Amino acid sequence: MRKSLLGALALLVVGCSGPDVSRFEGTWRAVGGRGTSSCYGDWELRSSFNIRLREGEDSDLEYITLDEEGQPWGSCIYGYSVEGEVATLDGQQTCVRTGFPEYIEMRWIYTRDDINLVDHWMREDGEAVVETDLFDGTTETCNETYTYEFVRP
């Protein structure tokens, strides 16, 4: 009886633990990127940026874009579900950022985003709608698809 109770408790603990996100966690540097915008055509990454991945509070994994000083870029934290070597965005998520010199506000509405671990690097593929409020009072809306490659700095 005691062995079966301990076995049941062990299975319960294993069953309740979330996926292993340790291979995703840490700071990653974008070393390549390309995509297509409905407003501007094809593009390639011209400067690098860093992201931080950490265990999530309300999701398996949290994705945080970092500014030049290594601080979170606005309040944009995205939640992902993890299964093995793949993290998938938890539904549509929106990020708002102000303070760009060219415009008043930008909203990124992410509709799909997947992160795949490949050996010692990581690949991100996704789709988003980018809404930009311009100083002339108009709003520009662009559909984007993108791919980024990341390595650990």
In terms of DSSP E residues, the strand content is over 45%
H/E element sequence: HEEEEEEEEEE
How many strands, which pairing sense, and closed or not: the largest β-sheet?
8 strands, antiparallel, barrel
Quickly count the helices.
1
Write out the strand line-up for the largest beta sheet, numbering strands in chain order.
1-3-4-5-6-8-9-10
Distance between the termini: 52 Å
Helix content: under 10%
Describe the overall structure.
The chain has 153 residues and is mainly beta. It contains 1 helix and 10 strands, in the order αββββββββββ. The protein has one helix spanning 2-16, and strands spanning 26-37, 41-44, 50-55, 61-66, 72-83, 86-89, 93-98, 103-118, 121-134, 139-151. The protein has an 8-stranded antiparallel barrel. A hairpin with a 5-residue loop joins strand 3 and strand 4 (61-66). 14% of the residues are buried.
Record the SSE blueprint:
Layout: H1 2-16, E1 26-37, E2 41-44, E3 50-55, E4 61-66, E5 72-83, E6 86-89, E7 93-98, E8 103-118, E9 121-134, E10 139-151
Antiparallel strand pairs: 1-2, 1-3, 1-10, 3-4, 4-5, 5-6, 6-8, 7-8, 8-9, 9-10
